Automatic annotation (TrEMBL):
Residues 7-164 form the Diphosphomevalonate decarboxylase-like N-terminal domain. Its EC number is 4.1.1.33. Residues 180-304 form the Mvd1 C-terminal domain. It comes from Oceanobacillus locisalsi. NCBIfam families: mevDPdecarb. Keywords: ATP-binding, Lipid biosynthesis, Lipid metabolism, Lyase, Nucleotide-binding. This is diphosphomevalonate decarboxylase. The keyword Nucleus does not apply. InterPro entries: GHMP_kinase_C_sf, Mev_decarb, Mev_diP_decarb, MVD-like_N, Mvd1_C, Ribosomal_Su5_D2-typ_SF, Ribsml_uS5_D2-typ_fold_subgr. The gene is mvaD. SUPFAM superfamilies: GHMP Kinase, C-terminal domain, Ribosomal protein S5 domain 2-like. It is an enzyme of class 4 (lyase).
Amino acid sequence: MKATARAHTNIALIKYWGKRNESLILPANSNLSVTLDGFSTETTVHFQEHLTEDSFILNEQSAEEDARTKIAVFLDKVRALSGKEIYAQVQSVNHVPTAAGFASSASGLAALAAASTKAIGLSLEDRELSRLARQGSGSASRSIYGGFVEWQMGEREDGLDSYAIQVADASHWNIRIAAVVLSKTVKKVSSREGMRRTIDTSPFYAGWLEQTAKDLQEIKQAIADKDFEKMGSVTEANCLRMHATTLGANPPFTYWQDNTMRVMQTVQGLREQGIPAFFTIDAGPNVKVLYLPEDEDKIKTRLNAVEGVEDIIISKPGSGISYM
């Protein structure tokens, strides 16, 4: 009763920001991401008869109480599906900065969903696995798949129609995504708290939802057509509108730092010089830059010159769940 799975993280091009149901993690809007081959989590789950509780080792260290509780709650769902009351030892290695806006929870919970269901004897289709992973972390629903992925918000109250589907596989389009590492520190406002505060208090949120539905249709067409300028401009505008909702919250907050702004301005400067590049930022200070492979040297040179840049990790569209 043991299995190991690897999942890659993803970056939302059309953002998921806000829930219509917190307990089931049902999004307020459909959203779209690209899976990144440069960031991943490997998780081994071993169910054992003699255990009296679940344990969780993260990066070779015993995880904190909150993380252990989250893992146990998720494994309760797996146990309920299988009808087996048996506890597990969980070991994960995160090749992602944790809680810094690089979606470590996406790859982490997707890998956990895959490894735990296989270890306990379940055989789930990708759609079922996506629905399960969603209940641990919303963005994990998208990391089940490679390439470009849409998480459909669904309409049902029970969440059975809220899962991710693949829009285009990893081989569809040879683009690049540079993850610009500015800070590896844990963010002060978690994504969950940030979403809640924004929905409850930001007067900009209703407009965000309305426009995002339009953005989603535009970007799906751009991906189908391999229209990089269109995809990039929609991605960047959607990102900026999302972050504007946090500035309208009460109390206001932002995930950006001074260096975040410097990278954004550098990317805009590259476009002014005729180099197509676009940025997007999740709930954290770090920036992801979309560009075409032929511009890689110019992009890296300019980004490395920005004050505060600690590292640049290059990805291309990555694969979905794999078993080891």
